[in-house]
Amino acid sequence: MEQYDARVDAYIAKAAPFAKPILEYIRQVVHDTSPKITETVKWGMPFFDYKGPVCMMASFKQHLGFGFWKASRLNDPNGFVKGGDDEAAAGSFGRIEKMEDLPPADVLKDFVLQIIAINESGVKEPKKPVAPKAEIAMPDDFNNLLASNPKALEHFFNFAPSKKKEYLEWIIESKSDATRQKRMEQALEWISEGKSRHWKYQK
Q1: Residue 160 and residue 139: Cα distance in Å, rounded?
Q2: Rounded (10°) CA dihedral 169, 171, 177, 179
Q3: 20 to 30 A from 48, CA-CA: which of 39, 57, 137, 188?
Q4: At what angle do helices 150-158 and 140-147 cross, to 10 degrees?
């Protein structure tokens, strides 16, 4: 992958006016931290990778989300990280509406270096003895459908990777175009309500 991805430029260009300088700032800080970082787009959002995901960002109508992929493993003595499971890390700093909602640049750079070191170590998560399945690529048709619904896109961004995967597997395993379209529309409805794929069976 290239260090910079034109799709990220396009993503920022389409963002709300308040969001553009914040997205550019995050992007600059991440790249200033390490030349090893490359960009890509997954699930319709910009990701920064090095031997695996490092962090990601997403823009919505009135706020941004910015998170680290393994947020729970960060050394964070000052408590900047506001939650997120071990891999989802979406929205590690809560709703970002202005630059001041982000931790200082030196803290962000330290977090980036920590995740790079974790990814370089190759150490697997001890609580996951079963090898993870290969990442499922976001289908273009579902990506476009999701992008048309800001509420659903926000919920999907905040889903754990396992929840994202459940929906993507359900869609790509469709046996016909008609079934695929029906599943995508149903998925969009449930996601917009913040529901997981198997919400009916969860208490």
Answers
A1: 18
A2: 110
A3: 188
A4: 120
Q: Which residues contact 155 (CB under 8 A, 6 or more apart)?
A: 191, 192, 193, 194
Buried b (16+ CB within 10 A) or exposed e, 93-115: beebeeeeebbeeebbbbbbebb
- Architecture per CATH, domain 6-121, reads as Alpha-Beta Complex (3.90)
In terms of phi and psi (left: phi > 0; alpha: psi -120 to 50; beta: otherwise), the region of 96 is: beta
Q: And the tokens for 201?
A: 């069976």
Please give the model's pTM, rounded to 2 decimal places: 0.62
Taking each helix axis as running N to C, give the angle between helix 105-121 and helix 20-33, from 0 to 180 degrees, rounded to the nearest 10: 50
pLDDT tens digit string along 34-66? 999 999 998 888 999 999 999 999 998 889 999
Cα gap 28→22, rounded to integer Å: 10
Task: Say how far apart CA 186 and CA 191 lie, in whole Å.
Answer: 9
Low-confidence residues in the chain, pLDDT < 70:
1, 83-90, 123-135, 202-203
Domain ranges of the chain: 6-121, 140-201
pLDDT score of 88: 39
